[in-house]
Design a protein that fits this description.
Layout lengths: L5 H12 L3 E4 L3 H6 L6 H15 L5 E4 L1 H5 L2 H17 L3 E8 L3 H12 L9 E4 L9 H10 L2 E7 L6 H4 L9 H12 L1 H5 L6 E5 L6 H4 L10 E3 L12 H5 L6 E5 L1 H4 L5 H19 L1
Parallel strand pairs: 1-2, 1-8, 2-3, 3-4, 4-5, 5-6, 6-7, 7-8
Helix pairs in contact: 3-5, 3-14, 6-7
Bound molecules: the ligand O=c1ccn([C@@H]2O[C@H](COP(=O)(O)O)[C@@H](O)[C@H]2O)c(=O)[nH]1.
C-alpha cells in the first residue's frame, strides 16, 4: 500500500474541512427542479456542478450509484468522471453502492470499487452485511490492501431497517450489535495505536435512542456515517443524542438537504457551509 489508510486520511480531512459528507443524488425530481432534462446530459451537468462547487470544500462526497446506474453505461461514465474529478480536487469519495453477496461475488464488487486499477476505484464503499458479516471478507481485505475504507450498514436511517437490524440472535445480541462488534474487531490494530480505523458503520441520524434499544455499542473505533439529515427529518442537533461520546467519529451525511439549493453554485456552497457550521456547533 503506498497511500495512507482511509481512516487516517478521513481523520485528516475531518480536521481540516470539518466532518460533513454531501451526497450526490441526482433524483429525477432534482434534475427537473434544476431546469435540467431527466437524461444523461442533465445527469452530467448536475454532477459536474456539485463536484465543482463542493469537492474542494467538504471532507467527503458520496455519489449514490443507483442514480447513475439508471442511465446504463453512459450514466456509469458520468459516475467514473465524478469520482476522478472529486478525488483530484481533494475530496474523499465514498461510493454509496450498498453491495453485498456471497464471498466469491463480493470479490468482484471489491475489484470494482476497491482495486486502484478500476475506473470506479473510490476511497470507500458502502456494503450490506445481510449475507453474513463474513461474506464481506473480500471487500475488507481489498480495502486493507489498497488503503481504502468500507462502511457496513448497521442501523440504517429508514424505519423499515429495525425489523432486521434489531432482531435478536441466538446468543441474545441484536444483529446490529453483532455487526458493530465485528467492525470494532476489524479496527483493533489502528485503535491500539490511537488511530481511526478504516472500517466504518452506517448509523442513521434519525435513530433517536434506537441504538441503545438494540443494545448496540457505537464505539467501533472507525467512522460512523450518519445519513438522514435534511430530507429524512434529522438535524445536526440530533447527533449527540444518537451517538453520545462517539460523536467525534461521526460523518454526518446530507444529500437533498444541500442539493435542493442548486443549480447556483454559490447557493450550494452556502448550504453546505451552513450545515457544516451546525455540525461543528454540536460535535465540538
Ligand atoms: O441508512 C442509510 C444508508 C444510506 N442512505 C443514503 O443516503 C442518502 C440520503 O439522502 P437524503 O437526500 O439526504 O435523504 C441516500 O443516497 C440514501 O441511499 C440513507 O439515507 N440511509
Amino acid at each position: 500500500m503506498t497511500t495512507a489508510p482511509f481512516g487516517a486520511r478521513l481523520r485528516a480531512a475531518m480536521d481540516t474541512r470539518g466532518p460533513l459528507c454531501v451526497g450526490i443524488d441526482p433524483h429525477a425530481s432534482l434534475l427537473t427542479e434544476w431546469g435540467l432534462g431527466d437524461d444523461v446530459a442533465g445527469l452530467e451537468r448536475f454532477t459536474r456542478t456539485v463536484v465543482d462547487a463542493l469537492a474542494e470544500r467538504v471532507a467527503v462526497l458520496k455519489p449514490q450509484s443507483a442514480f447513475f446506474e439508471r442511465f446504463g453505461s453512459r450514466g456509469i461514465a458520468v459516475l467514473e468522471r465524478a469520482v476522478a474529478d472529486a478525488r483530484a480536487a481533494g475530496a474523499l469519495v465514498l461510493m454509496d453502492a450498498k453491495r453485498g453477496d456471497i464471498g466469491s461475488t463480493m470479490g468482484a464488487y471489491a475489484a470494482a470499487y476497491l482495486d486502484p486499477g478500476s475506473p470506479l476505484f473510490s476511497d470507500a464503499v458502502t456494503v450490506s452485511p445481510y449475507l453474513g458479516f463474513g461474506s464481506l471478507r473480500p471487500a475488507l481485505d481489498a480495502a486493507r490492501a489498497s488503503g481504502a475504507g468500507v462502511f457496513v450498514l448497521a442501523l440504517t436511517s429508514n424505519p423499515e431497517g429495525a425489523e432486521v437490524q434489531h432482531a435478536v440472535r441466538a446468543d441474545g445480541t441484536s444483529v446490529a450489535a453483532s455487526v458493530l462488534a465485528s467492525l470494532k474487531a476489524e479496527n483493533a490494530a489502528e485503535a491500539a495505536e490511537g488511530r481511526l480505523g478504516s472500517f466504518g458503520a452506517v448509523v442513521g441520524a434519525t435513530l433517536g435512542t434506537a441504538a441503545s434499544r438494540a443494545g448496540a455499542e457505537l464505539t467501533v473505533d472507525g467512522p460512523l456515517l450518519a445519513p438522514g439529515i435534511g430530507a429524512q427529518g434529522a438535524t445536526p442537533a440530533d447527533l449527540p443524542g444518537v451517538f453520545g461520546a462517539a460523536v467525534r467519529n461521526v460523518v454526518p451525511s446530507v444529500s437533498r438537504g444541500v442539493l435542493r439549493y442548486g443549480p447556483d453554485a454559490a447557493s450550494l456552497v452556502e448550504a453546505a457551509a451552513r450545515m457544516a457550521d451546525e455540525v461543528r456547533a454540536v460535535a465540538e
